[in-house]
Amino acid sequence: MNTIDTPKNIHQGRNVKRFREMLGLKQEALAASLGEEWSQKRVSLLEQKEIIEDDILSQVAEILKVPVEAIKNFSEESVLNIISNTFTSTDTSTLNAINYQPTFHPIDKVLELFEENRKLYERLLASEQEKIEILKNKG
Question: Are 15 and 74 in contact (CB under 8 A)?
C-alpha cells in the first residue's frame, strides 16, 4: 500500500465506484473482468477501501480505461471548485462555456418545419395527380 502518494481526503475506493458508475458498469461485471477469484462482494469491499493496493489499482484502472492517477487523485471537492469558479464567474470569457444566446430563433425553426411540411404535401399532391392522369389515360 502506498500511503505517501495519496493526497489528503482522497478515497480511492469511492473513486473506483464513481468511475465504474460513470461507465455504467456493475460490480459483477468489474469482478468478472478482474478474474475468477473476484466476486461482487469483493468489489464492494474494494470500493469501501480508502487506499487500494497499487497492483489491484492498476488492474482496475486498465479495466475502467482510466489512468491510475485519475483514481488516486480524483477529488470531488476539486471538481466542484473548478465548476463553481468557471460557471459563476462574472468574467465574460466563461460565457462561451454556456450558450446563453443561441444563434437561431426558435420561431424560425418552427417556420422552417411548416415550410418543409408544405413542400411535402405539394409533392404528395403532384404524385396523386400523376396517378389520376395515368389511370385516365389507360381507361
Answer: yes
Whole-angstrom Cα distance, residue 74 to residue 14?
10
Q: For 115-139, how does the pLDDT look when each residue is reduced to its tens digit (9 = 90+)?
A: 999 999 999 999 999 999 999 998 7
In this prediction, residue 69 has a pLDDT band, given cuts at 50, 70 and 90, of confident
Q: Who contacts 138 (Cβ-Cβ below 8 Å, separation ≥6)?
A: none
Q: In whole angstroms, give the CA distance from residue 61 to residue 68.
A: 5
* Cell numbers found for residue 77: 471537492
φ, ψ dihedrals at 103, nearest 5°: -85, 5
Q: Which residues have C-beta within 8 Å of that of residue 56, sequence separation ≥ 6?
A: 46
Q: Is the Cβ–Cβ distance between 82 and 75 less than 8 Å?
A: no
**E strand or H helix at 61:** helix 54-64
